[in-house]
């Protein structure tokens, strides 16, 4: 649309600027004023006092985020025996009454902000300078790398590799069907799960238009595999995954890491963020305080059941306005609905209900087939859940942020089939449309790019990478435990008004 109005091109540096309305602080301040205003109004009516709600809300909004040590918060000025909760606002020398919940939230946000600052400092210390000249040089090297990728023909899909992939998929499906025929029901479920795990790698390729390069063809391939064969919505996946690629590991914007109260990979979630993707407030509540400290132990069990959540998210997407507002691609929603209905007819009715003889076998078959796909969900989360979620500011270049927030998995070439390209996530995030079977060569070039620019290239073995993820989950869990213990201590002692 805009191309026809272009009169020229100027190769100048672009100064990134985040629109205020896209900043989490924009929404946060609005919610803050509403919440504090409601509290003050209730107190005013109860006490019969006149309070300027506008100025009071503005004052509290500025004071809510302050400096604090790990477990040191500013105490209130009232004695512990006072039944009212008092916060002294020095600027106006005015005493305002607030609730225990407001005080706890304030302390929680202070603590989360302090942890964010520590992560930002670490990110600045371990990565190239964020000054304009350094980042400009990185961008120029990135463009040169992209040109080398194109010159070497790495955007050309090697269809012979997909012929090999198809043989493997056919063998897995044949094993499932054969074992089902001889009534080895639970064993056949294992091979159905392996079939699902393997074939979804090609759906991922199609979602990135990495097979034919044609939107219609790749969309149909992706829908057939994801919706018809696996019961998962390729439309939902593209909707969230494209955003994930743009703003990787940003707590307020990346839907792939917005998983509270089950998981929190960032202290930012303690602030109760508003998701720009879901337009939904992820509130940090008592469930988060209870569950997040155990997330290291919940990780694998929940990954084993994650496929059921994908069913739900897929249908939720297809029934939402987001799936209907696709312009010229309106037809994709109808294709997905037909394919997913076919999946549930074939899998849910003909296979589980009609073919399997008893309820114990039905339940066992469904659980086993879905548990086998756990490895896919681990592979998906492995590349980002262990990585930083800090925002180093608008001057950080795209390639630096992608490499800083993404890890690769080291594996021999003969094992590439097992990971399906997900072991090259750093390379993939730099060049999302490079076909999967060319990513190993791309990895070599990215290693050279890393050495030249000074951006650290994170790469671990599969087992070691799992340990890094669990370590990150444990790290955030400890943050939450410290915060909860501090709040309990203050509530017991009456310090800072928490009792």
From TrEMBL:
Membrane topology listed for this record: Multi-pass membrane protein
Pathway membership: Lipid metabolism
Record carries keyword ATP-binding: no
Domain spans labelled Fatty acid desaturase: 187-460
PANTHER family: DELTA 8-(E)-SPHINGOLIPID DESATURASE (PTHR19353:SF30), FATTY ACID DESATURASE 2 (PTHR19353)
Protein name (database record): Fatty acid desaturase domain-containing protein
GO biological process: lipid metabolic process
Keyword set, alphabetical order: Heme, Iron, Lipid metabolism, Membrane, Metal-binding, Oxidoreductase, Transmembrane, Transmembrane helix
Pfam families in alphabetical order: FA_desaturase
Entry's family note: Belongs to the fatty acid desaturase type 1 family.
Transmembrane segments: 169-195, 215-237, 297-317, 337-356, 363-387
Subcellular location: Membrane
GO cellular component assignments: membrane
UniProt key word Cytoplasm: no
GO molecular function: metal ion binding; oxidoreductase activity, acting on paired donors, with oxidation of a pair of donors resulting in the reduction of molecular oxygen to two molecules of water
């Amino acid at each position: 649309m805009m191309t026809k109005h272009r009169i020229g091109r100027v190769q100048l540096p672009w100064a990134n600027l985040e629109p205020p309305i896209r900043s989490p602080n924009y929404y946060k301040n609005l919610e803050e004023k509403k919440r504090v205003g409601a509290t003050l109004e209730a107190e005013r009516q109860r006490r019969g006092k006149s309070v300027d709600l506008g100025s009071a809300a503005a004052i509290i909004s500025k004071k809510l985020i302050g400096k604090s040590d790990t477990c040191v918060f500013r105490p209130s000025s009232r004695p512990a025996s006072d039944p009212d909760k008092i916060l002294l606002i020095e600027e106006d020398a005015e005493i305002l009454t607030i609730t225990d919940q407001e005080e706890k939230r304030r302390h929680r946000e202070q603590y989360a902000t302090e942890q964010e600052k520590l992560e930002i400092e670490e990110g600045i210390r371990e990565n190239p300078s964020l000054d304009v000249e350094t980042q400009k040089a990185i961008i120029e090297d990135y463009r040169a790398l992209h040109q080398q990728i194109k010159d070497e023909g790495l955007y050309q899909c090697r269809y012979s590799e997909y012929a090999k992939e198809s043989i493997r998929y056919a063998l897995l499906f044949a094993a499932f069907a054969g074992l089902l025929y001889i009534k080895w029901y639970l064993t056949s479920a294992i091979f159905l799960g392996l079939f699902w795990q393997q074939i979804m790698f090609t759906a991922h390729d199609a979602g990135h238009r990495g097979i034919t390069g044609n939107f219609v063809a790749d969309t149909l391939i992706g829908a057939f595999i994801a919706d018809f064969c696996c019961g998962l919505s390729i439309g939902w996946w593209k909707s969230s995954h494209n955003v994930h690629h743009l703003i990787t590991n940003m707590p307020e914007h990346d839907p792939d890491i917005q998983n509270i109260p089950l998981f929190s990979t960032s202290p930012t979630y303690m602030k109760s963020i508003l998701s720009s993707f879901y337009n939904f407030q992820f509130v940090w509540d008592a469930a988060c305080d209870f569950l997040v400290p155990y997330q290291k132990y919940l990780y694998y069990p929940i990954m084993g059941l994650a496929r059921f959540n994908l069913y739900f998210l897929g249908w939720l997407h297809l029934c939402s306005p987001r799936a209907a507002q696709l312009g010229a691609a309106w037809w994709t929603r109808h294709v997905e609905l037909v394919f997913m209905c076919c999946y549930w007819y074939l899998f849910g009715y003909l296979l589980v209900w009609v073919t399997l003889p008893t309820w114990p076998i039905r339940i066992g078959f469904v659980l086993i087939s879905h548990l086998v796909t756990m490895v896919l969900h681990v592979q998906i989360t492995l590349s980002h859940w262990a990585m930083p979620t800090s925002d180093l500011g608008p001057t950080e270049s795209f390639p630096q942020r992608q490499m800083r927030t993404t890890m690769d998995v080291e594996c021999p070439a003969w094992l590439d089939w097992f990971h399906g390209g997900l072991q090259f996530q750093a390379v993939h995030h730099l060049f999302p449309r490079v076909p999967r079977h060319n990513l190993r060569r791309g990895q070599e070039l990215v290693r050279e790019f890393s050495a030249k620019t000074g951006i650290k290239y994170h790469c671990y073995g599969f087992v070691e990478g799992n340990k890094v993820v669990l370590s990150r989950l444990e790290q955030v869990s400890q943050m939450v435990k410290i915060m909860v213990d501090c709040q309990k201590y203050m509530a017991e002692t009456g310090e800072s008004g928490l009792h």
